[in-house]
Design brief:
Layout (H helix, E strand, L loop, with lengths): L2 H4 E5 L3 H11 L5 E4 L1 H6 L4 H6 L6 E8 L3 H10 L4 E6 L3 H10 L7 E5 L7 H6 L6 H14 L4 E3 L5 H12 L7 E4 L18 H7 L3 E4 L1 H4 L6 H29 L1
Parallel strand pairs: 1-2, 1-8, 2-3, 3-4, 4-5, 5-6, 6-7, 7-8
Helix pairs in contact: 5-6, 8-9, 10-12
Amino acid sequence: MTMQERLIVALDESLDESRAIIEELGDHVQFYKIGWRCFLQGNGAFVSDVVAAGKGKRVFLDLKIHDIDVTVEKAMASLPRDVSLTTLYGTGATVRAAREGRNGHGTPALLLLTWLSSLDEADFHGMGGQGSLRDFVVARAIEAYEAGGEGVIASGEHVGAIRSELAKTYGKDADGFLLVVPGVRLAGGDVHEHKRSLTPYEAVRAGADYLVMGRPVARSPRGKRVEVVERIFADMARADRERHRDTAGSSAAW
């Protein structure tokens, strides 16, 4: 994938402001995340509006669907077919129910939430978690993979561990499992409520497939957002070149 295909800009502002962001970014951004705010304000039709903006626009619908299995199945069957990715919050059973709801369709790809990036290790233990947060997140990823999910939402600090464990257990079969990193922030920028945040460079170096960035783009001054996006692409491309160089070096040494 190109850097342009791997960046997902989160539309968490008002519906009107989100439309203005899409218009300003034009062909520079192809992928947008729609959360509860825009989804409800647009009565669900905003998904089709984004896709209709043209130039291969894609939608990541982030509703973190979580309920009893039969409700999850019916909810999935009701999602717009324009959606490329969507989030689930639950267990392997939730993933399997969502797969049933797709009725044989391959989309949207199902991403299981591992642990919110606004919560850290202390929160994990404070909520009764046992062992390490790392092991918990890896176990969630394995659970999603075994249930037939297409990927997970995970903080960049755990991407490497997830990749490693999946490869160790499932080999190349797990290569296509998607790792989507939220809460990515530019170096020196405000991380807001995210307690575990990486820069675009760090996220790509860690092995993320997709990066989700909202406020660093949306809350930049109007007329400057394309400039911010280009800076993000440059950061991602530098990390990608270094990853390929390191991989080639390791292969040569072997």
